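Discussion board: Methods & Data

I've been asked by a reviewer to show the raw model output for two of the constructs in my manuscript, not just the figures. I'm not sure how much to include, so I'm pasting the format here to get opinions. Each protein appears as its amino acid sequence followed by a line of discrete structure tokens. Is this the kind of thing reviewers expect to see in a supplement, or should I convert it first? Here is construct A:
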Amino acid sequence: MPRAKSMSVPVHVSTRCLTGYNEAMKTLDAPVLDRLFDAVGRILTPEVARKLVKLRFDSKTQAHIDKLARKCNEGELSDKELREYETYVHTIEFIAILQAKARALLKQSANAR
């Protein structure tokens, strides 16, 4: 597994140190999540979609996530840091899916012209 992966937010995270992370992601109810994301996609306007695609963490937060990612890769996260990092990873993945929906809407809007 790669040490870090690039996210759309963009953030580099590693799930290697997140015990049970891949197993937990496999057990999520995909149809429920699909319905949620489809509902969000239906209420997106092109203006909101453009803003969502540009969404980024501020530099201070990005630096903190990068530090947690390095510590994760080195196996040096405390329990508190691990919980914090897991929260960032889940949030980043959620935002990445929303950004993909936003990009699809923008592409669809451009093709409709």
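Construct B, same format:
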Amino acid sequence: MDKKALIREYKETSRPMGVYCIRNTVNGKLLIGKSIDLPSILNRQRAQLRSGSHPNPTLQTDLYAAHTKKWILTRIARRAFHRSSRTRTSPES
């Protein structure tokens, strides 16, 4: 595939958008967020927490106190989103 075709294919790919939760299983604290690209935001949250550069200092401090294995990142709700048309579709499609 040429570069233009790859770019077009990427733009036409539907991305799951929705709500996510980062939960501390020790003290029950939650961070709830939303994103138009769930896989990317969950990956970013993990990377920021591992590197110590998360924008939420309380979450980062709790992570060091409770250790990484005590945190769970989950998707709460999800919808497919088409980048090219900017329209939502149901998760089944």
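Answer (T.O., handling editor elsewhere):
This is acceptable in a supplement if you add a one-line summary per construct. For B, something like: Confidence is low (pLDDT under 50) at residues 89-93.
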